[in-house]
Structures are given as C-alpha cells and as structure tokens.
Amino acid sequence: MSAPLTVPADSAAIAPGASPATGFWRRALRHRSFVLGAALSLLVLGAALLSLVWTPWSAYDIDIASKLHPPSAAHWLGTDVFGRDIVSLLLVGARSTIMVGVIAVGIGLTFGVCLGLIAAARKGWTEELIMRMSDFTFAFPAVLSAIMLAAVVGPGMLTSITAIGIFQIPTFVRVTRGSANAVWAREFILAARAAGKGGFRITIEHVLPNILSILIVQATIQFALAILAEAALSYLGLGTQPPQPSWGRMLNDAQTLLFQSPMLAVYPGAAIAIAVLGLNLLGDGLRDLLDPRLARER
Amino acid sequence: MSLFILRRILTLVATLIAASLIIFLVLDALPGNAAQMLMGVDASPDAVRALTVKLGLDQPLTYRYLLWIKGMMVGELGNSYVYGTPVAGLIAERLVLTVPLAIMSMLITVVLALAAGIYTAANHNKLGDVGVMSLTQVGIALPNFWFAILLILLFAVKLQWLSAGGFAGWDDGIWPGIRSLLLPSISLAVVQAAILARVTRSAVLEVLREDFVRTARAKGLGKREVLWRHVLRNAMIPVMTVMGLQFANLLAGTIVIENVFYLPGLGRLIFQSIANRDLIVVRNCVMLLAAMVVTVNFVVDVLYAFIDPRIKVANL
C-alpha cells in the first residue's frame, strides 16, 4: 500500500555523485515542470516575504466606508466587506499559509523520518509496532483531528498546525522506512557493518544521506497537501482566526457575498491553487532531476 | 485464505479499540469536567455538581469507557448533552444525507477516473493524453471547497439551474434529493478523480508493457480486446489501493462540503456540536467516521486477496 502522490518507496536514492552541481542546474532549467513549479512556488514565497516589509494597504485596518469597492487604481483587486484591500490580504495570507505549512511539514518530517529510520534499523517487533501505529494514524484525516482538538482546546492556528502535522507523520514514516530498507540491503552497508559501525552510526552516516533526495521530493508534495488542509480548516473556522488574514478564511467571508461580489470568492481560491500546483510541479520536477531512475513515462 | 482473513479481522478490531481509546481520552478524559464546560465558568457549583451526576460524569473513567463500548455494541450511545435526545437517533438522521453523498461522489470519481485514465493510457503521449494529464494536474491543486464555490457561482448564481445549498430530503421521491446532492458530489469527486486518473493511467501503462500483453497481441487479439480483457483486471490493484485511501479523504471532504452547501449531514452535526460543547455527540461522530475509514481499508485489503491470490501468500 502506498499513499497517493508518494515516491515509490522501494527505490533507493540517487546514484552517488557522478554529476557536479552545475550539471544539475543545466538539466533543471530545461525541465518544464520543474521551471514552472519553481516559478509558481517562488511567486508565493515572494508574496509572503514582500508582506513582511510592504503591503499596498494595511491588511488589518477596517474601513467600512470603502467596503466592497470594485478593482481600481488604489485597490487593484478591490476591497472586502470590511473595506480591507484584497491584494494586501492575499499577500499576508500567503505568509500564514507558508508558516502553517512549514511547521506542519516540519512536525511530520521530524517524527516521521525518525520513526521510519528506527523501523528500518531495528526491524522485528519495533518495525511492526511503528508501522501499525502509522497505519492507524491514517484513520484520522487532518480534519478529524482538528475537530477533536477544536472541541477540546478551541479552534486556532495551533490546532490546525498540530492536526496537519500529525496527519503528515505516517506518510513520512512509510516513505522513510521503504527507502531506508532498500539502502540497508545494499553492499556498502555490509561493508560498514564489517568495519564495526553500529546501527545508529550507519543510519546517520550512510542511510540518511542516501534517502535525502526522496525525502526532499516527498516534503515538497506534503507541503502542497498541508496548504490544502490549512485552507480547508481555516475555511471551516477551525484554523487561522480573524483578524489574521488567511486564504481559507477569505473564502468563507466571500461565500456570504456570492451574489454581490462573486470575484471575492475567486482570488483566494486561485492563490491556493497556484501555491499547490507550483509545489506539486516542483516535486515532480525534483523527482525526475534528483533520481533519473524514478523518471516516469511522459 | 481463512488465516489471512482472520489476521486482518484481528488487526481491524485492534485498530478500532485503539481508535476508541484515543477518541475517549481526547474528548472525555482530557477536557476535565464536561458539565462545567456546558454551563460555563459562572455556573454555581451546586448546579454543576447536579449536572455532573445527571450526565453520569461522576463515575470513574474506566467505567465510562466500558459503558461507551458496550453502548456501541447495542446501538445505545447515550443522550445528547444539549438536546437530551438519543445520540444514535441524531446521527442516523444525518447519515441519510452523508452516506448517499459519499456514495454518489465515489461513483462519479470512479467513472471519471477510469474513463480519463484508460483513455490517456490508450493514447499514450498523444495530444489527448497530454491535455487530460495537464487538466488532472490542475484538478489535484484545486481545494474542493473552492471548486464547490465556483460551481455555485456558475450553476446557482449565474445560470440559476440549481439551488446554492440546502437539502430537499427524500420525502418527495428520490429525484429532488439527488438533485440537491449533485453539485456537492461533483465538487468532491472532481479533485479525487484527478488523482485516481493519474494512478489508473500509470497502472495501465505498466501492465501494457508486460510480456503477456505482447503474447495476447501476437495470438491475434485486437488492441481493444487486450485492453479490456487482460490489462484492466491486472491494473486494478494499485487503483483499488488508492481508492481505499481516498475514502478517508472523501469522508473528510464531506464534512467540508456539507458546510459549503449548508447540507444537514454528519459534518454539520459535528460543527453544531462543537459550538454547543456537546462532546458526547462529537465523540460518537468522530468514532463513526474513523470506523468507516478503517473498515473500508480492511475491505480493500481483503478484496486484493481475491483479485490477486499472490498477496495472501505473501502476507501470511
């Protein structure tokens, strides 16, 4: 069983360093989905960074007098029901999205990779226990965990980060364990064993470097999934809370005004789709570039 | 075969018990006193104590947990803290909407995905393949609730063919009900179908490269016959795996989509209960959803063994 959008787990990592870094970039710039994905991802990242130093208007100040303005020279995409500038909200929203995504994927990556490496190194009942636990976590989609947490501690950014982070763990466990097992079966591990290295040192010095590229690809794709989950949770009111702008929240606000200002419901969704599309294409591109053996039929 | 199924059933039961334990700990033990939560901080201690006794919250934790498990066996889930009516009845009322919604969207997903996947694999690297595959790439990136809002914009606001939300119920025959579930199930299905179509395509392409396909062609079978008779059956295993995994997403999706379309299903019930601090309803709803996910994955596992006898041997 493998999750959708995961790297095939049995494939070992990149062939050790035949091509220098320059070769990678030359191939990368010719790879269509990598270039498009990187451009879209950089666009979102740039928007988030820009919002730290500059937004056309404040994303927090309420100005009821200028509510629901159509696009104009002053407000490029118009204003929302509280008179806030849409462009500014989108820019600051990118920041919330990236922050939640980075922390949630960080949680999933840290716990998932550690558990996966342990499972591959220890085998036996340890592996069985870790894999059963990760199968079990699959039964709780991020929305379900977020609902439980929200019912007990209340909704908020922390609730959504925790819920998404927990949901990310099992995927990383599977991918890490699958690819680490493939590395453990290689001959240079046997050599390292013969040289007297223990399981911990082999894992750090040999296994981890060899599965790094697979983890990078998987983290990119999981980032996209985290953005989708964050948007859904904020839309439901379980995630980022007002007045902190977030794309999901903007869609929720816009939905009550579908008949008056339909375009308000279009921009934030398009922003989410651009971010997710960019990361997915980037992940596909990285997979092809980092491991030629994984390159899929096109 | 029976040993394989027995092992699977034991895993299923263990998983369900673990799930119930975690749900109970998070939603019953962790919040402290649910009666205090219900009445607010200003409530008089006497009133809180009275409610605690009335709700049975003064009993020890293990007793309450075992009572809940026993209740689930016989369908006695206790009464809602807020409405005072049986939780089982509340949930059953809502399942009348959520189950048909999930089934409809799964059907649409499978039809769309198989059609797109088989078409693209059969026309590998031709214009149609590239076009449909680009579409699926975009489809995967769409948040389903945004796609739902776009559908509302088009069909309810602009064209005014369908209503923007609400549920007609099953009392006036089956058609009005299906009509009000049409947009919700499409918006759930399209994103899932995009993922499943890609899986189907690569699975079919994989099988097309097998030796037995060449043999079948060599003995004179047409391309079409080989595809339908030999390739599809063999390509179904990865497709079914992903379908099983997608079911969890689908249920999570119904919670979101019900809120987009103001449908009185399980998802709305959960949200009302969170707002009302009706933790006993939340607990049972979450358990039900988790149980559905676990059970569907169990069924998929067992079905593999029937499709591909090699699996049960490998997993013994």
UniProtKB/TrEMBL annotation, chain A:
Protein name per Swiss-Prot or TrEMBL: Peptide ABC transporter permease
Residue ranges occupied by any ABC transmembrane type-1 domain in the UniProt entry: 94-283
Domain of life: Bacteria
UniProt record similarity statement: Belongs to the binding-protein-dependent transport system permease family.
Lineage: Bacteria, Pseudomonadati, Pseudomonadota, Alphaproteobacteria, Hyphomicrobiales
Annotated Gene Ontology cellular component terms: plasma membrane
GO biological-process terms attached to the record: transmembrane transport
Localization per Swiss-Prot or TrEMBL: Cell membrane
Membrane topology type: Multi-pass membrane protein
TrEMBL record, chain B:
UniProt entry keywords in alphabetical sequence: Cell membrane, Membrane, Transmembrane, Transmembrane helix, Transport
Domain of life: Bacteria
Positions in coiled-coil regions: none
InterPro entries tied to this protein: BPD_transp_1_N, MetI-like, MetI-like_sf
SUPFAM superfamilies: MetI-like (SSF161098)
Any one GO MF annotation of this record: dipeptide transmembrane transporter activity
Residues that span the membrane, as ranges: 65-83, 95-120, 140-159, 235-264, 285-307
Membrane topology category: Multi-pass membrane protein
Pfam families the UniProt entry points to: BPD_transp_1, BPD_transp_1_N
Cellular component terms (Gene Ontology): plasma membrane
Domain ABC transmembrane type-1: 95-304
PROSITE patterns, per database record: ABC_TM1
Localization per record: Cell membrane
PANTHER family registered for this protein in UniProt: DIPEPTIDE TRANSPORT SYSTEM PERMEASE PROTEIN DPPB-RELATED
Family, similarity comment: Belongs to the binding-protein-dependent transport system permease family.
Protein name in the entry: ABC transporter permease
Annotated source species: Bradyrhizobium macuxiense
Lineage of producing organism: Bacteria, Pseudomonadati, Pseudomonadota, Alphaproteobacteria, Hyphomicrobiales
